[in-house]
């Protein structure tokens, strides 16, 4: 009855037809294209250009998100928007409203699935960085929480109305249509609040590990900025909460649900972008080494073993914590009396010729005396060669 009277009022008063479909399409195309490009670039870099040349668990998770994200954008732009999203319900006919209900129901499920995959991917990325036992246990618990919570809300959404078809048949305007739903608005608020809290936990947890890294303060700042990109998702999630006021609780759902879908789209796109920023940094370092070069290798003079330790840890951060191998067989930085150590490492571990894992640098007992001894050995060797 409300819809009929409102339609009559709108017609008699010659009110302009409101339509925010174009704005939604533009945001979808811009953010969707950016997220798609960064994800593809990240996967290509990890598979073909990184030292490991393999995809990690976080990469496979993002790939799964990409597979679902592309059809999500297609549904929103070419199906959900043309069937009334961003328009007043009284300007639409019944078949269009039924189609809107179908697509909105599908998008609810896709949104929950994509956000679960994004949060799991971030957690798995942190697992590839931090070796500490406590932090890894916390991160695995975080992964389990996101999976369990995500699956619970997905199942709730699938079965939120009885029968399931009532999710869209409630828009047919027929009073004889029977069915009921759980409090969708309340469950939306619960999911939104849990999401914000989980986001805060996810970007705060790695920050607690910065003090354990023996890096130059500039590198600590760079690492902090990388981790704080997760705060962007948190901000968007908070802004999305405001849109839930009329979620599943409106006489004009095609208009009022626009803000929910709009902010949900931004949240998912920003989530994909943030998960790709660490890989983007490595790509920029590869493309512009002079601009983004690590200061860990800028100096050729080493005066203590602490510099070696800082250099190796810094390299781990720069290379994406992949435990890459470093060729040291021809390096003049390794004292002669330690060459046997490298050879033993090579022979005992079966590693490729002249390569050891960078963590092994931390075990080398380098100090000023050993460096001076190396210089004397090299000078004596040159004199002996000249005499011969």
Automatic annotation (TrEMBL):
Bilayer-crossing residues are 26-45, 57-80, 100-126, 138-159, 189-209, 221-241, 261-284
The record's similarity note reads:
Belongs to the SAT4 family.
* Keywords of the record: Membrane, Transmembrane, Transmembrane helix
| Pfam families (UniProt xref) | Fung_rhodopsin (PF20684)
Keyword flag Transmembrane helix: yes
Q: What is its main location?
A: membrane
Q: What protein am I looking at?
A: Gag-pol polyprotein
Q: Where in this protein does the record put region Disordered?
A: 367-388
Ranges of residues in domain Rhodopsin: 50-285
Q: Write down the species.
A: Metarhizium robertsii (strain ARSEF 23 / ATCC MYA-3075) (Metarhizium anisopliae (strain ARSEF 23))
Q: Where located?
A: Membrane
Instruction: List the membrane topology term(s).
Output: Multi-pass membrane protein
